Amino acid sequence: MNYVDHCKEQNYPVPQEPIIFSKFASAITEPNGAVIHPKETDSLDYEVELAFVISRRGKHIKESEAMSHVAGYTVAHDVSARDWQMKKNGKQWLLGKTFDTFCPLGPAIVTPSSLSDPHKLGIRCRLNGELVQNSNTEQLVHKTGALVAFISRFMTLEPGDVVLTGTPPGVGCFRDPPIWLKKGDVVECEIDEIGKITNTIIQ
């Protein structure tokens, strides 16, 4: 819920505070690695996201100092099992977000100084060559500095931590009818000035 246009898509009020959930390290996979479709879900969905990587340990970081804790930006594919996220396990998001291979990252970490503006970048996702998400990071509600400051109120940020910043509209679960990923599908996640990652769904 961190893109204004994604909130509008769901008729959901723009959050005053970031909505935070976790993905375990075992979810991370290579930029062009395969994504495993778990037998536990029939509601597998795609999400392109801008992610940033922490460079320096910190707690209670001021927003004005937040960028000194950011190594750079990368592209993330926040694969999601919507049934486990929205219906099962008490509707807690964790299990639906953290199956193995549910977080392809890459293709590189691009330093902030190498980007024209990380909050004014085109962001898009293609499913089997068809454009399904197409927005701009200027739609982000809570931007990098605000996220670093907010998250570090609750936990110590460590070098190598990765923060995914949310997805724009167009995800499969809010389409009519819904679009669910299946074996053989190819998902491309791309952000201007950072690059593209490509993931094939396997079983």
UniProtKB/TrEMBL annotation:
It comes from Geodia barretti. The keyword Hydrolase applies. InterPro entries: FAH (IPR051121), Fumarylacetoacetase-like_C (IPR011234), Fumarylacetoacetase_C_sf (IPR036663). This is Fumarylacetoacetate hydrolase domain-containing protein 2. GO terms for biological process: oxaloacetate metabolic process. GO terms for molecular function: hydrolase activity; metal ion binding; oxaloacetate tautomerase activity. Residues 2-201 form the Fumarylacetoacetase-like C-terminal domain. Belongs to the FAH family. Keywords: Hydrolase, Metal-binding. PANTHER family: FUMARYLACETOACETATE HYDROLASE DOMAIN-CONTAINING PROTEIN 2A, FUMARYLACETOACETATE HYDROLASE DOMAIN-CONTAINING PROTEIN 2A-RELATED. It holds the Pfam family FAA_hydrolase.
